[in-house]
Amino acid sequence: MEEYNEGHIPNAISVPLETIENEAEAKLKNKDDLILVYCRSGRRSREAALKLIEKGYTNVIDFWWNTGLECGNCENNKRKKKYK
Predict the structure, then answer these.
(1) Is 77 exposed, middle or buried (0-12, 13-18, 19+ CB in 10 A)?
(2) How many CB atoms lie under 10 A from the CB of residue 15?
(3) Model-level pTM?
(4) CA angle at 32 for the pair 8 and 57, rounded to the nearest 5°
């Protein structure tokens, strides 16, 4: 939660990797919605994206924390990877 509080994409929903098994379906109700998964380094976001896919989510993108998007608290980076 500390990382989320330091800055996040506006309207982001925080589902930490350590709670994703139990909280994903309660917080992410539509398994066909676009889900951008990101963290500061990319390691946890990769694990989280794969767990979501295992749970049946169909539109998951590992979007790393530093994306370069024009959003309030984001920093710059060029990495993103879509899983199907």
Answers:
(1) middle
(2) 21
(3) 0.72
(4) 75
